[in-house]
Amino acid sequence: MVTPTLANTPTISTSYVARDNNFPLPTLLVANVRSIINKIDELEVVAQINQVEVICITESWLNTSVVDSMISLSNFIQFRNDRTYSCGGGVSIYIKEEIYCRRLEHFEDSAIESLWLLLRPKRLPRSISALLLAVIYHTTSSGANENFELYNHIQRNVESFLSLHPDGLVFVTGDFNPVSTLFDEKRLKRLSGLTQIINVPTRHNAILDWCLTNAKKVVFDVSQLPPIGSSDHNAILIKSHKDRLENSCNKRVCKRDLRDSSIRHFGQTITSTDWTEIFEIPDPNMKYRRFNEVVSAMMDCFFPNKPTSVRESDKPWMTSSLKSSISKRQKSLHKYGRNSQAYRFWRNRVQRDVKVARRKYYANSVQKLKSANPSRWWKEVKSIGGLSSRESWVHQLLSEVNPTCEDLAESYNGYLVGLTSHFKPLLECTDDQETEVPNHLLVNIGQVYSVLRRLKTTKSPGPDDIPNRILKTFAFEFAPIIMDIYNTSVLQGVFPDQLKRSIVVPIPKVSPPQTIEDDLRPISLTAQVSKVMEGFMLQSLMSEVGLKLDPKQFALPGKSTTQALVYLLHLIHAALDQGHCSVRILFSDFKKGFDLVDHNVIIDELLKLQVSPAIIRWIKSFLTSREQCVKIGPSFSSWKPVNGGLPQGIKLGPLLFAILVNSLLQDWNGRIKFVDDATALEIVPRCSPSLLPILVNDVSQYASSRGMKLNSKKCKEMTISFLQYHLPLDNAIYINGLPVQSVSSFKLLGVLLREDLSWCDHVDYVIKKANSRLYALRKLKKAGLSDKDLVTIYSSFIRSRIEYASPAWSSLTQGQSDLIESIQRRALRILLPEMSYQNALNYTGLKKLSTRRHNFCEQFIRKLKLDNGPINPLKDVVATRIHPNTHNYNLRSESSWSLQTNTERFQNFITVKYNY
Question: CA of 770: how far to CAs of 110, 838, 846, in Å?
Fold first, then answer.
């Protein structure tokens, strides 16, 4: 954990500060909500009405089965610390997305329910350098010992913060239950210098919720708000006395008006356009440039790219009428008191309306979309169920070095380009213009038309800004031109320069991201025409290299992650079944895999595979002189050339990377690959040394010779042994001088493997993921979705997650199988609470999950036996029948291709159990 200092946190904007206290402090909302998940909509409206920027929640009652998307607030970043030892409790904080914040995990104590954050708003009074914000829940059962620990906890953290930020401001909020715990605010003030500023009752006539601060000269307005939902605690609003700047919720974006009427006018012109000029241009670069100019000019004429003001959208079911009711409830509390008839009327009105808000919205606005616009229906249903959210992360990376989104985009682009700046740039061929091009590399109009008609209109356009909807709608008109551009490109071995550009959109790997180097994944947007052309070349390249690639590379057509896992586990089970050995596994990880690729090495590998010169020439042109920019929010960086790397998002990327690592581990039998994931296993006989450290050195040298690097922090090793007298392996594995961590469990291709080959960790992982989505099912049930629709949603969003790669982990115990089955039982209990499980299965047409796994396994083996695709090592496995060893005699009638098992573990594995 990095200790926050002034050096690594953003500088406060003081550009227009004329005197002290020129800017107000963030507005705080403190509330004990007693379960936040069913009050999230009301909480969002209350925060919006009162222009709240910081929300501190106690008794959130969350657990790991509730995912963040179900409790997200628009334009807020959320932090949570759930109680793990029992139900109830828990604390959460929501911070307005434009406020820089960082969780201080080293301030937290597992024995105390608390969250500590460092805040750096863009504007603060000049005398305040930073904010320390905490929320604490001190349970009613706490006694003198717990009070003593909490005094020390607060004092220690406040002193630690103020030693780094002497001018810092501290807010410690939460439910301290002083009446029952006898927690003393005066004693705390003597210890830490914090003063309690809430002076209105928070529960009946008692002040149980506090806000402790070290502010001496700042005057606060503390006001009582109605309870959130059915909570028995009033919410508390805390404002500083300064007038607040009006926050604009509007954003300026550029959009094209793609209404049907505009597209019809565009179509009248495009269908009568004479493309002869473009067909007659011999140069592919000029040909595409002219095509792009013509189409762009037409689009600018009929649907120009206009700047539009877009308001940050509220949740659509939170209507203006409901917001008005919440506002009137708040006013009636202040004007007439909580015992007044007016307050009770509006309180009951709000509670009633909130409960039916989603149901009304679905019935009036969403249900009719199912037949008219299915994709929009899915989107709305996911929104209602809390299955989708767009959490802003950009402001968490702004700093003194990168104070704006433009600066952040420029820095990230510079970092990405710098990864391959030491590579020698790939140069296009200039002396092989007479290369013979086979006819099968060229395409016809029908092929192009078919691809254009299958385009997904929801995908974002690339740098050319031609929407997929235009290409798909007018596929008949565009197919001849795109065919001509592609064929000319292949014949001349020149890929158009304008199509070599890509817009990189960073996606956070963790929430919130801490650094641009480690926590962002660059996803590239390229022109759709480029993807169409790539698709044709991908087919041609695959037809030439498919049989030459490593058969244990499973990221190829006809193969899958499930096959990779089954093959690896079969090798492990088969080795351990023979006894007298252990299995040692290396899970390797390449640092910045796709971003750290030398284009020259790819061309060398293509030559080794004896790929057609015409294809190599085209791919060489495709990789040469590429440019990229980074888009973060509405901001773009400058365009920069890149010397290497494969943009994540291009169609050729996975196959080219597979070619790059084709010879990796080629002489090591125990291996599997899936694009940039490479796993090696070694069978170590009893009392024999392991050779895996030597193999790792070879892999490291292999990577270095290609400009790649192994990530020593993410590479792991695991030893699997069932020997009664097992001697630990004494030769550790090192990568670049750093030891590789030995683990007891590892997540490989989405499945958790354990050193004892049991599936308890994976079953727990699956159940945890499924539980979080069952909450969504309950929400959608309350929203009024039909049973049929709910079954469809369960099958798509829950069951599909449960059954991922199920043939690989089908050898469950009965108890584990029952746990998996319980997910579907709970789902059907939500849908059809009055029916038994069997009756619900009959009514919905669903099958038991155990039955489906059995069918999947049979189908998996059957498909392998019938597979006529590229060489697959699993085909040899299923071609050999394996059966239990029931005697010690060799009978002449037994088939020579039949093997025997010695352990129940291997006997229950899919390659044995279902290989009839």
Answer: 27, 21, 17
